[in-house]
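Hey, resending since the last one bounced:
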Amino acid sequence: MHYPESRFCIRRVRLGKTSSLAKQLGEAGYSMEDVVGDSRSVAVEFPVDMGANIRSLDAVPMWEQLALAAFLQRHWSDNQVRQIVSVA
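The structure tokens again:
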């Protein structure tokens, strides 16, 4: 869990090439690429706008990021929480 690195990003999802959803997304104009090492899958790209008021990684103080990681480790996760921390 971490804050987004920017307001905009591309989310990629793997689907089977024979999936009806993959066909519909291709027909709708979504960008698709073959998955290297898996000839039966494609990666579909979805452009994402996190929203105008999103706090990106560089806008959140390091101590707040570490507090979030500690909170998640204690109250949510049963294993190690991955955290990206900006120390600008």
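Helices lie at 20-27, 62-75.

Sorry for the duplicate.
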